[in-house]
Amino acid sequence: MTLELHEVHAYYGQSHILHGISLTVGPGEVVALLGRNGAGKTTTLRAIMGLTPARSGRIMFDGQDITHKPTHVIARLGISYVPSGRRLFGQLTVLQNLQLWQQPPRDGSRWNLERVYEVFPRLAEFARRRAGSLSGGEQQMLKIGRALLANPKLLLLDEPTEGLAPTVVGQLSQWLKLLKDAGLSMLLAEQNALFALKLADRGYVLEKGQIRYAASAEELRQSPEVRAYLGV
Amino acid sequence: MVAWPDAVIQLLSGLTAASTLFIVASGLTLVFGAMRVINMAHGSFYMYAAFILATVAGGAAGGARFWVGLGAAVVVVAVLGGLVEVGVLRRTYDKEHLTQLLATFALVYIFADLALQVWGGTYRSVSVPPGLDGQAEVLGRAFPVYNFFLIGLGIAVGAGLWFILQRTTLGWQVRALVEDPELLAAAGVNVRRVGTIAFIIGALLAAVAGAARAPGITIAPGMDTEILVDAFIVAVIGGLGSVTGAALGAIIIGLFQAVGVLLAAEWSSAFTYLAMILVLIVRPSGLLGIPER
Description:
The complex is a heterodimer.
Chain A: E1 3-12, E2 15-25, E3 30-34, H1 41-49, E4 56-61, E5 64-65, H2 71-77, E6 79-82, H3 94-101, H4 113-119, H5 121-125, H6 136-149, E7 154-158, H7 166-181, E8 185-190, H8 193-199, E9 202-207, E10 210-216, H9 217-222, H10 224-230
Parallel strand pairs in A: 3-8, 3-9, 6-7, 7-8
Antiparallel strand pairs in A: 1-2, 1-4, 4-5, 9-10
Helix pairs in contact in A: 3-6, 4-6
Chain B: H1 4-35, H2 42-57, H3 66-87, H4 97-119, E1 135-138, E2 141-144, H5 145-167, H6 169-179, H7 181-186, H8 191-213, H9 223-238, H10 243-264, H11 268-282
Antiparallel strand pairs in B: 1-2
Helix pairs in contact in B: 1-5, 1-8, 1-9, 1-10, 2-3, 2-4, 2-8, 2-9, 3-8, 5-6, 6-8, 9-10, 9-11, 10-11
């Protein structure tokens, strides 16, 4: 699994959001995408998923050009997107939400309902409930659980800590560590830099749609400049 | 006073009308639910099915070919529905609602003119298929056997739709499409395909209703917009997007019309609008509709 972005530009209508983003995520790597609100983190993930297609530049996944592929094709190639906020199908049950994401096992990734239920027993308990009735933490479980059921090679996480209670953030950190140790690659967009850099191997700092810093997680944590910019 | 056996007969007539209304309206509401598109050409699909059936199985002796005609009507209209979705509607999804409305409204005229070219302006009729003809006796009164078939068909279509929407992956995808198309695509689902299938199912429902209702009515130009208005009222009463709501709406309208005929025959169509006004005063989004966010 390798993801490579070369000089990606993306727009919302007329406004130019990404000004030439280049980044890579290697096999088994967890890469943090940091930056303030509006820096372009979400748009970068959306461009990768084909939801806000890149107008120029190139996005390669496992040697394949996915720049102009439709979203569902990108998803089936093995990229699972975990959007921010409460984005789930609230009218469907928890189980139906999970099953909509299910894809056949891929080499090295054998997630199925039983294994997801082992990690998140709550989801088994609430399988027949409407997803819309879940609490914030439970919705987070569902969002990660369903992403795993797609048996992805790469997980794109958008602000997973947003709006979560501190105890749930601690749990989230453990779940993601578990997935990292299992060898899953991740691109983690976060405003909460401390959370992201605890987990990540490397990181990029975005500012106004451009990459300002690129360094190892350790270096980013130490750098006074980065700390000042991110306000940590 | 009305004798109660007559009232029962009137009730059954109301349910017969409700059944057809439900099948048409369920297609309209399903398409709106999945794609947020109001398909004005839905009535055209209904009319085309009746005309196709009349072409295959028209006239007094045509009854034996009824089922072949019904099958042909459903298949042709389903294909037509697919062409409309892929050829016209797909280009309008990223535009405003008015564009979609105008596009489907244009289709109403195009289909109507095309129908005049193909079938002419003459009235046609279709006989009830053998086996379903004749009268049944209900409380000493006669009631057409075919109307029982229509009521049963409505129930069967309702059960079938419920099963598809609640129990199959396609149904979940259709319901998910309403809530968040982007998210559904991110789940690896080809949302365009789901939209096309939902639209074809909608067209198919209009066709089933149009063909099944054809015996006993006059098949003529104009039945497209006539049914559209009724189906639209039913769907709005039930709450646009809700199939269960369409069933409730159809029963309400069917019964209001039946009661209306009994009480004041010349005012019966006013009862339809009265029912709609009453429901919308109490529930502006319809009985089971979800208010727009």
